[in-house]
Write a structure and sequence with these properties.
The complex is a heterodimer of chains A (471) and B (451).
Chain A: H1 11-26, H2 32-38, H3 43-49, E1 62-66, E2 69-75, E3 81-88, H4 103-110, H5 120-130, E4 133-138, E5 143-150, H6 154-166, H7 172-189, H8 193-205, H9 215-221, H10 227-237, E6 243-249, H11 253-261, E7 287-290, E8 297-304, H12 313-325, H13 331-339, E9 346-352, E10 357-365, H14 367-387, H15 391-403, H16 412-424, H17 431-441, H18 444-454, E11 460-464
Parallel strand pairs in A: 2-6, 7-11
Antiparallel strand pairs in A: 1-2, 3-5, 3-6, 4-5, 8-10, 8-11, 9-10
Chain B: H1 2-12, E1 18-21, E2 28-32, E3 38-43, E4 49-56, H2 70-77, H3 89-96, E5 100-105, E6 110-117, H4 121-133, H5 139-158, H6 163-174, H7 187-192, H8 195-205, E7 211-217, H9 221-232, E8 253-260, E9 267-276, H10 277-280, H11 283-295, H12 301-309, E10 313-321, E11 327-336, H13 344-361, H14 364-376, H15 385-397, H16 402-406, H17 408-413, H18 417-429, E12 432-439, H19 440-445
Parallel strand pairs in B: 3-7, 8-12
Antiparallel strand pairs in B: 1-2, 2-3, 4-6, 4-7, 5-6, 9-11, 9-12, 10-11
Helix pairs in contact in B: 2-5, 2-8, 4-9, 11-18, 12-13
Classes of the chains: A alpha+beta (471), B alpha+beta (451).
């Protein structure tokens, strides 16, 4: 037996307890309340006695306007690092010409294969020697970029970023190489059954919409993409009008003004692409089984969700958090993973896309467990719609979400990308000050109304069902 | 009776030694409790956050033969109850206080971490200390968790069509050494594990003298040290005896070629087994520079040669794995550019020729540039407080000292051209295993010729 039990306090406290308990025992009393207290950890008591108290992180977000652009800045001078996070809305994969699929993907790598006077080798050598990270990324909706650098090398970093945005090179040698690499990478990715199913899923859910495009199509269309196409896409889709930009770290308002002036003010003024319209999807109740050989059966499921700006966003956010969004503590994890051991992981998410908002999720398990897991999931799904959540669950979830609030300030680059998210969803400059109040204001009725509405229909399932004959 | 001992131990919980080392990469201080728990406190005051990681210096290589997966299953069961906290309580408490937490198992170590608002620090200390000493899960939790790790193995390994190749390659490289076995254990081994197997591992290895505690964030050593004493100081310790493993065969070069269904592209690997970091001492920096120079990304010598100049590869890289108690391993990898012209011997020769040629071209000037590049990123390790905790912890858990972690930049700058060249010469004499992974249809296009 161990000598240790962690509820213990100081010597004096302890000694008094021993004497007290000894006395009780000596007198033959059974003192269940004291013994219970002695034999369990009590997180609330630990916290109440703790010397570490809540500190608020001072988070004044500054708004800086220049040349039609609006930027957010959070100054943090304790680490000599700067982070710039930017995003061009309506410039992602779903905005490519159907015949030129793959354009956005190779643009993201070719932009840093040399720029201006730097060939690819000189560009990358210079960035590495100065600790400058410049990179681009994409999703269905957006094209995004970042700059992360030591403060002392900011001038060099901006010189490099300016070259990238203003004088891309797209050298022929790299056009060919990146295309071949991309094709190989796509084929490799599609070795994974989850990636195969993800495509089947979006093909089913978004049939006919650009979101349903398949990575394998890129293998055929990629060679259609020319240097001119890339330049044209930059002219039409990477503009000041659809730019969202954020700054964090060892920067001042003046620095931000200067950076907006160059390179960003030199971007085209107007966006000349086509914005994504919202679509109405009637999801729910369908099931499609795909035949594919893999060790586990896999399931992706979805129904309609709600948009970030909608009235019922926070209520549904909390409902989903309790149902499947909070990791091992979620209802479905507790039942399907922790209790029954049917899967390594099951979770649900609220997914925000420009065209549609989803309540979606996934799990995988060996074929013998697969339908059992699905039945339990559906049982909980229905229960969520019919019974909603309890007030206790609501209070605990609020406490959790408020307690974890400060984690978002862990890194300078993380702060910058969070500021971009705030602008993307129009949360307001004061969002960080108000966020916990938004959580606190959610009522039980609101959560249960959202649960009833969104969990009211069975989700659509698309499965790799190893046992099933499939399509 | 027990209680009296505990009271006395409060007085005995004085540290053995303290060393304040603020010179170096991190603002870190270390001390060791009387029960042998090695502690490192790292300061990062950007935000009111703290990360705790407890590293046990034991992983899957310390398992009994045939009990593959027991270290990993134990890692899962550490969340399933103690004498003082019932099954589910740990997760509920972490959730309630907004803690982001998880755990990991490798060949060498098992680690448990939480990242939280600093106001919750004492809860983290209490619950982590509790499960260091008082693990107590029931049979039902054991059965469920064994099924879960089996599903984890299916999801992470069996679902991936390339896995048989990588597991086989590792087995050939290590032979009978337990580093050749997968950390997850094999599916049959997992399902054969029993309650007692896991508890045996726990009682043998989960003890303060075999653990390392890292706290990183908005704290000072002065503030947290009494708290560490309070929660961990009374845990009884015992001596951990670790088996010495057989080292790899000398003078070997084995080649594995495997064709697998669903694999889409050819991959070539060349692996060299080098001495352990504690034998190599500062020579590990020569190999780190070698890794960066030969195959560290798209500006490396071999990338420029094989991908850009000769156009024979779509990608090429090198990696050096030395943060381990076992032998360190230097690897090359390549995806050939023209699968139709692929030929195994030629591909392996190409890798060697390219590396040889690069070594002939390595100049003082180039070496200086590599060092500049490797130093330029160091400023970022003090951004997220989790980075320093992970970096220092990973090194110290396998036998490096804090001083070595702190003096990374100095050690790097001390690397000489001669040293790197010697390192490469040693590498070429090292035991070697090559592997070629092929799509199954490639075999067919070769008219069924099996290589």
């Amino acid at each position: 037996m161990s000598m240790y039990s962690p509820y213990r306090r100081g010597f004096g406290y302890y000694l008094k307890r021993i004497i007290f308990v000894s006395v009780l025992l000596a007198l033959g009393f059974y003192a269940p309340d004291i013994m219970t207290y002695y034999n369990r950890l009590d997180s609330e008591k630990i916290l109440a006695a703790s010397t570490f108290k809540n500190k608020t992180f001072s988070t004044p977000v500054q708004e800086i306007k220049s040349s039609g652009m609006t930027a957010y800045l959070l100054e943090e001078h304790s680490v000599p690092i700067v982070s710039i996070d930017f995003k061009f809305g309506n410039a992602g994969v779903a905005h490519e010409d159907e015949e030129k699929q793959g354009l956005v993907r190779i643009l993201s790598s070719l932009l840093i294969d040399g720029a201006g006077k730097y060939d690819a080798e000189a560009f990358k050598d210079t960035c590495e020697e100065y600790g400058i990270k410049i990179g681009f990324d994409y999703d269905n909706d957006d094209f995004s970029g970042y700059l992360y650098a030591p403060r002392k090398n900011l001038p060099k970093a901006l010189e490099m970023l300016t070259a990238v945005l203003q004088k891309p090179r797209f050298d022929k040698e790299f056009m060919t190489l990146r295309k071949e690499q991309l094709k190989t990478a796509i084929k490799s990715k599609m070795e994974n059954p989850e990636a195969v199913l993800a495509e089947k899923f979006s093909g089913f859910i978004f049939a006919g919409h650009p979101y349903s495009r398949k990575a394998m199509t890129v293998l055929k269309t990629l060679d259609n993409v020319s240097e001119d196409d890339l330049l044209k896409f930059m002219q039409t889709h990477l503009s000041r009008e659809n730019l969202i930009i954020s700054f964090a770290g060892d920067l001042t308002k003046k620095d931000v003004k200067d950076i907006l002036k160059s390179p960003f003010a030199e971007l085209p003024e107007k966006y000349a692409g086509e914005k994504m319209n919202r679509i109405e999807l009637k999801l729910g109740g369908r099931e499609k089984n795909v035949k594919y050989k893999s060790a586990q059966a896999i399931s992706f499921f979805a129904t309609n969700g709600t948009y970030r700006e909608a009235e019922d966003y926070y209520p549904l956010y909390l409902a989903n958090y309790i149902f499947g969004g909070s990791g091992l503590n979620s209802r479905i994890s507790q039942i399907i993973r922790e209790k029954e051991g049917l899967t390594y992981g099951i979770a649900t998410y609220l997914q925000q896309n420009d065209a549609v908002a989803l309540l979606t999720g996934s799990y995988s398990s060996t074929p013998d467990n697969f339908r059992k897991a699905q039945n339990l999931l559906l049982e909980q799904w229905q229960k969520m719609a019919q019974e909603g959540i309890s007030d206790k669950e609501l209070q605990q979830t609020k406490e959790s979400l408020i307690s974890s609030f400060n984690l978002r300030f862990a890194s300078i680059s993380g702060i910058a990308s969070m500021l971009t998210g705030m602008q993307q969803y129009n949360l307001g400059r004061d969002f960080l000050e108000k966020r916990n109040d938004y959580i606190k204001a959610v009522t039980l009725d609101e959560v249960n109304a959202a649960a009833k509405k969104y969990f009211g229909t069975k989700p659509d399932f698309v499965n790799i069902d190893v046992k099933n004959k499939g399509e | 009776m027990m209680n009296k001992f505990a009271v006395i131990s409060v007085f005995l919980s004085v540290c053995l030694w303290v060393q304040a080392v603020y010179a170096g990469l991190f603002k870190a201080e270390e001390f060791t409790l009387q029960n042998g728990l090695h502690c490192v406190v790292i300061e990062n005051h950007k935000a009111p956050l703290v990360k705790q990681i407890v590293w046990y210096k034991s992983g899957s290589v310390d398992e009994q033969k045939g009990k593959g997966g027991s270290a990993h299953l134990l890692e899962h069961l550490m969340f399933r109850g103690t004498k003082y906290a019932k099954d589910g309580e740990f997760n509920r408490v972490m959730e309630k206080y907004g803690v982001s937490d998880n755990a990991f198992t490798s060949h060498d170590v098992t680690g448990y971490y939480q990242f939280a608002d600093v106001s919750k620090l004492e809860v983290l200390l209490a619950y982590e200390a509790d499960r260091m000493a008082n693990l107590n899960f029931d049979e039902k939790a054991f059965e469920a968790e064994r099924k879960i790790v089996y599903q984890e193995r299916m999801q992470r390994v069996e679902n991936n069509p390339s896995s048989p190749f990588y597991e086989r390659l590792n087995l050939i490289l290590w032979g009978n050494n337990p580093y050749g076995q997968p950390v997850t254990g094999l599916p049959d081994e997992i399902m054969g594990l029993e309650y007692a197997d896991v508890m045996e591992f726990y009682h043998k290895f989960y003890t303060p003298s075999n653990a390392l505690l890292i706290l990183s964030g908005d704290i000072t050593a002065k503030e947290v040290r009494p708290l560490i004493e309070k929660y961990y100081g009374k845990i009884k310790s015992h001596k951990v005896i670790r088996k010495n493993h057989e080292t790899a065969k000398q003078n070997m070069h084995e080649i594995l070629e495997m064709s697998l269904p669903k694999v889409s592209s050819i991959k070539v690997y060349d692996k060299y087994m080098l001495p352990k970091h504690d034998e190599l001492k500062n020579k590990i920096y020569d190999y780190m520079v070698l890794e960066e120079y030969l195959g560290g990304g798209s500006t490396s010598a071999m990338y420029k040669d094989l991908v850009l100049k000769q156009k024979k590869a779509l990608s090429v890289g090198a990696s050096y794995h030395f943060v381990t108690r076992g032998e360190s391993v230097f690897s090359f990898n390549m995806i050939p550019q023209n699968p139709d012209e692929f030929e195994r011997e030629g591909a392996l020769e190409l890798l060697q020729q390219s590396a040889d040629e690069a070594m002939q071209n390595l100049s003082e000037e180039k070496l200086a540039q590599i060092k500049r590049k490797m130093s330029a990123d160091l400023v970022f390790v003090n951004d997220n407080p989790q980075t320093a905790a992970d970096w220092i912890g990973a090194m110290l858990a396998v036998g490096f000292t804090l001083d070595e972690a702190q003096s990374y930049e100095d050690n790097l700058n001390a690397v000489t051209l001669q040293g790197v060249k010697e390192a490469y010469a040693e590498l070429k004499k090292a035991p070697r295993v090559s592997g070629v992974l092929l799509p199954l249809k490639h075999e067919k296009t070769d008219k069924g010729e099996s290589k």
